[in-house]
Design a protein that fits this description.
432 residues; alpha/beta; FAD/NAD(P)-binding domain; 3 domains; 7-stranded mixed sheet; globular
């Protein structure tokens, strides 16, 4: 039986630990905080509960595969329900778009906004079909070697075309460009530095829909924690990893305050910058910084909003309404990005969503506080142009028997990309 030490108890760390334990490895998982889950957790105060991070996911097959490969099927553990809308967009010209998940629905909704917009948007989304198929087969779903990438993948990675440049050529309507760039702006990226092929996120939203867990996305983390127990994973909470121990050029252990934990394989599912042995390998990258976050508890009459509303402009505001609250109350989360020169609720009121009189509780978190709480940014690596995809570590690293998973090891943040990265590491290490 081989010994595997996984560093990080967020979704990526839990996913890879469960997969490896199921295939016969002796797995120890180290988590610096007193709880598992990381950004997949929740925030609870005064009877209100909010998702700490994502409130929905794409690519439900990633979760279904994880649960099927590690024990009971997803449907026997969790409810994963489709959402009718991707989100609602409110643009700077005072027009509003409720964007459905289906291709036909998006065509109708955009043509209702302005005739012809639907076809232009559909053509944009369709243009990423081949990108997804190529990258799915040779990059996202199968272990890859950066020195031996298939030509279709290499051509995409070497392309100088950035998303901003492509959109400027293909989408003349500013509102369509807002739709296409929102996922990246929300994660702190500048579209001028995001490779054009990453626009496939719009394809994933339309092709596979958006999904949520009734009761909050933290339920996934809770069920995964139980799965680790079932699979016999040794979980050490409150145990920060100080470094990866190298001997004769290979990873042999993880250093903690209590001593070194020997390993045949080491998986790092946190920001590699926090580990001195790995920091030089990622010195050309930077983390994507979380937004300003305000969780609010409200009472009385509040606007009837869908699960997510995007208010375009500077600052960019995102309102998520799916928190849990006592009867007669409401739990919202507001994210802010850009020039945050005023209180988020005041900024929200300027968009005619004024809930200040209904406020009974609030929890504010700055980007700095969130990074300190989680130990790293759950949004992974900041896009700084085409070189970023190769500067980021992947399922393998230059150090033998050392692997990386999680948001810092994949081009996109969120459960789909993180879950795929965990599957790649498990496939690379293989069964006992």
């Amino acid at each position: 039986m081989s010994r595997v030490v996984v560093v990080g108890g967020g979704f990526g760390g839990m996913a890879v630990a469960a997969r490896l334990a199921k295939t016969g490895h002796e797995v120890t998982l180290l988590e610096r905080s007193p709880d598992l889950g990381g950004a997949l957790g929740s925030v609870s105060e005064e009877g209100f509960t909010w998702d700490a991070g994502a409130s929905y996911t794409l690519l439900p097959a990633v979760l279904r595969d994880l649960f099927r490969k590690t024990g009971r099927p997803l449907e026997r553990e969790l409810e994963l329900e489709p959402l009718d809308l991707v989100r609602e967009h409110r643009f700077e010209d005072d027009t509003t778009l409720a964007l459905p998940t289906s291709r036909a629905g998006q065509l109708r909704a955009l043509d209702a906004l302005e005739p012809g917009l639907g076809e232009r948007w559909a053509a944009h989304v369709d243009s990423f079909t081949e990108d997804w198929e190529v990258l799915r087969q040779h990059y996202f779903e199968h272990p890859w070697q950066r020195a031996a990438l298939p030509d279709p993948v290499r051509r995409r990675f070497d392309s100088r075309e950035m998303l901003h440049k492509r959109l400027k050529k293909t989408l003349k309507d500013e509102r369509l460009r807002d739709l296409a760039t929102f996922p990246f702006l929300a994660e702190g990226h500048d579209p001028r530095n995001v490779p054009a092929w990453m626009g496939l996120v719009a394809y994933l939203e339309q092709r596979f829909g958006t999904w949520h867990v009734p009761g909050g996305m933290a339920r996934i983390g809770e069920v995964m924690a139980g799965r680790l127990t079932t699979r016999g994973v040794t979980v050490l909470l409150g145990t920060p990893a100080r470094d990866v121990v190298l001997r004769e050029g290979r990873a042999v252990a993880v250093r903690t305050d209590e001593g070194d934990i020997a390993a045949d394989e080491v998986v790092v599912a946190v920001d590699p910058r926090g580990l001195p042995s790995l920091a030089p390998l990622v010195e050309r990258t930077m983390p994507a910084i979380p937004p300003v976050v305000c969780h609010v508890g409200l009472e009385g009459d509040v606007p009837d909003l869908p699960h997510e509303v995007v208010l375009h402009g500077d600052p960019l505001l995102v309102v998520r309404t799916g928190g849990h609250a006592p009867d007669g109350r409401h739990a919202w989360t507001i994210h802010g990005r850009g020039k945050i020169a005023e209180d988020l609720l005041r900024a929200l009121a300027r968009h005619r969503i004024d809930v200040r009189a209904q406020l009974v509780h609030r929890v504010d978190r700055s980007p700095r506080e969130l990074v300190q709480q989680w130990g790293s940014s759950p949004l992974g690596v900041l896009w700084q142009g085409r070189s970023t995809v190769r500067a980021r570590l992947g399922p393998d690293t230059p150090i033998p028997h050392l692997h990386t998973a999680g948001a810092h090891a994949t081009p996109g943040a969120g459960l789909p990309f993180v879950g795929l990265s965990a599957a790649l590491v498990a496939e690379r290490i293989g069964p006992v």
